[in-house]
């Protein structure tokens, strides 16, 4: 088994990729946050402190924490990787040949850690010290962005997801997040930790127009025993599910993909905002969305990469069968209807399991956390007053790279 292996959602978590944002959050304003897919502006220092509590909690549980900015800076130290990334992220088509060249020259001379921070955190016209002969500086306001910030990099879960012995490098649905994928592409291709290591790239490694075949890691649950549960949400399409399933079957890494249809609205942007796996037989669910009548399909296939699809009845039965458990225990969001809706919005269902029955969740979701506690699930609480306003919890903020199976 390669050391890059994620065998479940609930086995002991061993290694995880996270991102502590700073520069990108300082570029968020009330006038641009919606374009950048944030509902609000965050207090930068406070969000950073909360993120530090999150990473400390992970380390206290024996998890090795990799930081995206550090990995990116190490990757940029490799000449080919640096050239590839600058050509992709500051392309002639994006900025016009003259200006793109000037920006690349300016960025190329920066220390790699500074460059990593700009690529993830953005660069405004006011922050560019060079004068270019292009028309671009003349027609833009100082607060316009040459490179848009990527505040959603905070949610490392989405851009790539490790499934059994390989990774899917995900084509993102929204323009505001598409550049994130190039950063993980470069890291998995060149960073010494990953380069030459033994793992499969199922999907998304080549640069091409993926069109409607988008998929995001928040929708992908590696439920174990060769099964994968995927939500078809606002951001993950049936086409994307089929592409990933084909890659999994082709490499003999999964036996079955269960695909669930989700409503296409922001409160349940991804499957993990309404349903997460906490122990082999236990899931947290938000019952308003994860209803009995949710449509569900089972995808199977073989090494030819062909996928066959069969509609299933009740999704819970399909999961019980895949996991070989008699009865799933579903813990619903706590409190009355109003409280449950508020806590779901604040990511009460988006917890990160670090080992069977032990999860990290926001301390503010008191009603739901109490229900978890009563069901024998230990919640390791972290503050989320600021981080939670990005609409993502502990699971969203983590990309497991190594985790035991069940």
TrEMBL record:
Pathway: Amino-acid degradation; L-arginine degradation via ADI pathway; carbamoyl phosphate from L-arginine: step 1/2
Localization in the cell: Cytoplasm
Superkingdom of origin: Bacteria
An example Gene Ontology molecular-function term: arginine deiminase activity
Main location: cytoplasm
A single cellular component GO annotation: cytoplasm
Entry keyword Cytoplasm: yes
Keywords assigned: Arginine metabolism, Cytoplasm, Hydrolase
Active-site residues, record numbering mapped to chain: 396 (amidino-cysteine intermediate)
EC number(s) reported in the record: 3.5.3.6
Gene Ontology biological process terms, A to Z: L-arginine deiminase pathway
Catalytic activities: L-arginine + H2O = L-citrulline + NH4(+)
Pfam families, sorted: ADI
Protein family according to the UniProt entry: Belongs to the arginine deiminase family.
Alphabetical list of PANTHER family matching this protein: ARGININE DEIMINASE
Protein name, UniProt field: Arginine deiminase
Organism: Photobacterium profundum (strain SS9)
Gene: T4501
